[in-house]
TrEMBL record:
Protein name (database record): GTP cyclohydrolase-2
Residues at which GTP binds: 66-70, 87, 108-110, 130, 165, 170
Keyword GTP-binding part of the UniProt annotation: yes
UniProt keyword annotation of Cell cycle present: no
SUPFAM superfamilies linked to this entry: RibA-like
Matching CDD domains: GTP_cyclohydro2
Length: 216
């Protein structure tokens, strides 16, 4: 880990049974933290062999880790404008099978917040893509900072990970923050008629590794 990274510590850990609307069930060890640099209430979900919370992570293979940015509309209400909800559901099952952590990061709308994200939706309805809309609001195209993700992993004793993500920026930031990304696994393509333009923008604007039939 980067020696300059502010130290965070585990605040609370508790076992939580999870059940998804499609009937999938699993158990997670949910961690909260002291000392995260942005003072937000981010959570880590230990899944699979990390759900017990009774073995030092150093004794286990590098965990499968997904930093998942909160999306209230997609994660909770099933919005079809994005692929966040299906990615979250997929990630929990895959991490439970492989053993690792889902980091649930409170950075809605690629870091601009929930209300601003809805403002961006209105601009998208006028023809802008998801990145252009953020910029038109005077914000960054993607303001997410994964320093807290690195802090959380350090607090859990994790310095090497297999990253579950299509987003190269996540791997680049974690590497710069001292988390060794030893391998990268891609999530599935959760394409629908209402999120096709959104997914295409992720490929063309931010180099996400998504195999879309309509994007060369």
């Amino acid at each position: 880990m980067d020696d300059r990274l502010p130290t965070a510590t585990v605040r609370t850990q508790v076992t939580v049974p999870l059940r998804f609307p499609d009937g999938y069930v699993t158990t997670a060890r949910v961690y909260s933290f002291h000392g995260l640099v942005d003072d937000r209430e981010h959570l880590a979900f230990g899944l699979g062999d990390r759900a017990a919370g009774d073995r030092p992570d150093a004794d286990l293979p590098p965990p499968l880790v997904r930093p998942h940015s909160e999306c209230l509309t997609g994660d909770v209400f099933g919005s079809q404008r994005c692929d966040c909800g299906p990615q979250l559901r997929e990630a929990v099952e895959r991490i439970a099978e492989a053993g690792g952590y889902l980091l649930y990061l409170r950075q809605e709308g690629r870091g601009i917040g929930l209300y601003a994200k809805l403002d961006a939706y209105a601009l998208q309805d006028g023809g802008l893509d998801t990145y252009e809309a953020n910029v038109a609001l005077g914000r960054g195209a993607d303001e997410r900072d994964y320093t807290v993700a690195a802090q959380m992993l350090a607090a859990l004793g994790v310095s090497r990970v297999t990253l579950l993500s299509n987003n190269p920026d996540k791997a680049d930031q974690l590497d710069r923050l001292g988390v060794a990304v030893v391998d990268r696994m891609l999530t599935g393509v959760h394409l629908s008629p209402t999120n096709a333009a959104y997914l295409a923008a992720k490929v063309t604007r931010a180099d996400h590794a998504l195999d879309l039939p309509f994007v060369p």
